[in-house]
Amino acid sequence: MKAIEGDDGRARCAWCEVADFPLYRQYHDQEWGFPVADETRLFEKLCLEGFQAGLSWRTILAKREAFRAGFAGFDAARVAAFTEADVQRLLADAGIVRHRGKIEATIGNARALKSLHERGQSLAALVWSFEEKPAPALAFRAESAASQALSKQLKKLGFRFVGPTTVYAFMQAMGLVNDHAEGCWARAAALQARSVFRVPT
Question: In the chain, what are the domain boundaries?
C-alpha cells in the first residue's frame, strides 16, 4: 500500500482516493486507524466487519446509516432483545445487506456483549488487551497472531462472523494497528492519538 496525493494536496493511503466515493476519504481522515474505546462504536464496527465478509467495505460504508437505523444505533441491549419479527423486518430492508446469517449473528453478538457487560466486563477492555506491543512494522497483512488470538476469544464468548481476517480489519479500523501508509498524513496523526489514548481496563 502506498500514499498518493489527493486533489487537496494531502497525501493519503491510496485505497481511500476514489473519485466517485468521497465517503472513503472522510472515513479515512476521521476514523480509520484512530483509537476507539467506546463500546457502541466497537460493537458496531465488529458487526459491520462481519457484514462485509465476502463484500467490499465500500458497500457497507454506503449502507452504514441504514444499518444504524435498522439495528437501533447498535445499542447492544436493544439489539439483544430483537426477535424473529425483527429478523424479518431486517430481511425486508433494502438499505442493508439482507443476509439472514449475518443478521442473526449481529443479534447473537449483542447478546454475547450483554452477557459480557453483566459480568462487569467490557468489549473495549477485551479487544485492547490484544493490542500488539511493540507496534508491528508495516506489513499489510490480512491477519496477525493478535487477530487470531482475539478471534478465538470472541468466538469462545459467543460472537460470530469474527474470523481472524475480519478481526484484523476491525483492529486496523479501531486503532489497535496503525496501517496507514508511510507518507500518509494520517499515519502520524493516528500515532499521536494513540500516544495520549488511555487503554481501557
Answer: 3-195
